[in-house]
Amino acid sequence: MTVAERGSGGRAGQLIDAWDEMREYVDHDPQEYERLVAECARELAAAPDGPLAYRWTLGLVLALPYLATRKPEDLDVEAAFGAASDVARALRDEACGHGEHPFQGSLEGQLECVPDVLRELGGEGAGGEGLWPDPRQSREAWLCPRNTAGYARVVMESLRAGSAGDDVPPFLPFEDRYELEGLIAIMEGYPLARTFDVAFDLSFAASALQGASGEDLAGRVFTATAVTWYVEVEADPEHEGAQQLVAELVAAFERALELLGDGGACAHDAHPALPDDATEVLWVGAHLASARGRAVYERWPREGVPPLDTVRCPVFVAATACDSLARLRSC
Fold first, then answer.
1. Nearest Cα residue to 184 out of 172, 174, 195, 173
2. Which of 29, 119, 137, 156 is most buried, by the most CB atoms less than 10 A from its CB?
3. Is residue 7's pLDDT more than 70?
4. pLDDT confidence of 239, banded at 50, 70, 90?
5. Phi and psi for 129 in degrees, rounded to 5?
6. Cα(246)–Cα(116) distance, rounded to whole angstroms?
7. pLDDT confidence of residue 5
8. Cα(6)–Cα(11) distance, rounded to whole angstroms?
């Protein structure tokens, strides 16, 4: 019996646990996750405006990290998008008196608390005074049909960029989150099970920089910079894979500098330093590498990272690339 079957038999908590696992361990059990997504989609297709639409919709939200590993044409992706579209159409114009809804907040900060919210809403939580998990939004706001419609549009936007309209707040694409989590795990010394080979996985930062241009270039420079810092300290210079990685990074930075030149002149009196922690630099890079990520960076500033206007300055980006190149050439 699957986790989903156990949960649907009575205790919603088991189903929520399964969704939470799917959120955190996206590669652990793809066949089970596919079934979980199909169940959410099936329930929503049957009753897009039903009393439990909020639960099944948030189940799809928790499935987004897994769905980011799938192809757009996969059946579970298509089913999730179709179900979310049905919910959005059915509920987005419902009357409500709330000034704002949870879906309008930072998805990056909310995702981990969604399972606890669902447990409390379904009577599966710890209960008791003061244990409501969201200090910013009420139970009523979470249960509001327009909030459910908003999260349905978040699902739509994640699966097909541009499909949900302008009222969905920005969030880091889950594909970029997937890459970020893998790189952070390597740098913290605990590679994820999906890591094929450390040097091979780090080389994707070099290939991404090699193909970057325009506004995305700065983000790719910073991600490759974080990898450079890691290589400088951790890599064995005699290891063939490390040597190849260094060569790929050098070539990528050389190309980036051809595009950037010296960065030209700028109006800044000074540029703030990047964080000392390479994993924080990875966060900067991941968010600057896409339009949605940059919108998140601007809307919800992270403590300890440079402001958006200065971190994107071509002079600062070029100087960072030059420094990384010098470090690599001394490896």
1. 195
2. 156
3. no
4. confident
5. -65, 135
6. 44
7. 40
8. 8
Percentage, residues of the chain above pLDDT 70: 94
Give the count of beta carbons closer than 10 Å to the beta carbon of residue 243. 15
CB 88 within 8 A of CB 153: yes
Q: How far is residue 280's CA from residue 272's CA, in Å, rounded to a whole number?
A: 14
CA distance linking residue 12 with residue 55, whole number of Å: 9
Q: What is the mean pLDDT of the chain?
A: 92
Structure tokens at 112: 């981990």
Q: CA–CA separation, 330 vs 322, rounded Å?
A: 13
Residue 23 backbone dihedrals phi, psi, to 5 degrees:
-65, -45
Per-residue pLDDT tens digits for 56-100? 999 999 999 999 999 999 999 999 999 999 999 999 999 999 999
| Higher pLDDT pick, 202 / 262 | 202
Q: How far is CA 305 from the centre of its chain?
A: 18
Amino acid at the residue 252: A
**Across residues 286-313, what is the average pLDDT?**
95
| DSSP, res 138 | -
Map tokens 């983000």 to a residue.
219
Q: Is the pLDDT of residue 127 over 70?
A: no
> Tokens at residue 40, please?
């959410």
**pLDDT score of 235:** 81
Determine the Cα–Cα distance for residues 113 and 124; give it in Å rounded to an integer: 14
Burial readout 145-169 (b: 16 or more C-beta within 10 A, e: otherwise) = bbbbbbbbbbbbbbbeeebbeeebb
Q: Which candidate, 321, 320, 294, 323, places its Cα nearest to that of 309?
A: 294
* Contacts of residue 229, Cβ cutoff 8 Å, sequence gap at least 6: 278, 281, 327
Region 156-165 average pLDDT: 94
The residue whose two tokens read 């949605």 is 292
In whole angstroms, what is the distance from residue 191 CA to residue 187 CA?
Answer: 8
Measured CA to CA, the distance from residue 240 to residue 261 in angstroms comes to 31
Q: How far apart are the first and last CA of the chain?
A: 53
DSSP-assigned states of every residue in 14-27: HHHHHHHHHHH-TT
